[in-house]
Amino acid sequence: MAVSQVSNTQSTVVLTPRYWVPIGVAIAGTILTFLTPWAGVPIILLGCFLGFQAATVKVQFTATAFELYRGEKQLRQFPFAEWQDWLILVPPIPILFFFKEVKSIHFMPMLFDARALLTCLEERCPRS
């Protein structure tokens, strides 16, 4: 299991997975199922999918990039040199992370330690 660490800008930090968003989505889907089953079941499935992603995707900060892994295989690498902006949406209840690169924008559900994410972003890719 990945463990968040106290970071400095040169060390590699692996964020700890968090399951609050998948659990919240699944609970919302369950409640919605009692009202309208055709709308609730897809929400429950989305919660299960997010839980699977939280369990299998590893988020890592290196000195130069934000990296995503599944197992030992690197899925994507986002060099900080290409970042233009980032934002954690609804900070008191972080559910979504946004960042913009030169070529594209990205939204990620908050499936990992939001506090460690914020610390790493402020250290390695400070907002202007």
Task: Give an account of the 3D structure.
- With 128 residues, this protein is of the alpha+beta class.
- The protein has helices at residues 20-35, 37-56, 114-124, and strands at residues 13-14, 57-61, 65-70, 73-79, 83-89, 96-101, 105-109.
- The protein has a four-stranded antiparallel beta sheet with strand order 1-2-3-4. A three-stranded antiparallel beta sheet has the order 5-6-7, covered by helices on one side.
- The longest helix is centred in the middle third of the chain and has 20 residues, at 37-56.
- The protein is elongated, with a radius of gyration of 16 Å.
- The N and C termini lie far apart (34 Å).
- The mean pLDDT is 90.
Give the tags.
3-stranded antiparallel β-sheet, 4-stranded antiparallel β-sheet, 128 residues, 37% helix, 3 helices
Uncertain segments are none
Note the overall shape: elongated
Share in helix? 25-40%
Strand order in the largest sheet: 1-2-3-4
Average pLDDT, rounded to a whole number, is 90
Which oligomeric form is depicted? single chain
- Kindly state the number of beta strands: 7
Beta-strand percentage range: 25-35%
Main sheet attributes: strand count, strand direction, barrel closure: 4 strands, antiparallel
Structural class label: alpha+beta
Distance between the termini: 34 Å
From N to C, what is the helix and strand string? EHHEEEEEEH
Using only C-alpha atoms, the radius of gyration works out to 16 Å
- In DSSP terms (H or I, runs of 4 or more residues), the helix count works out at 3
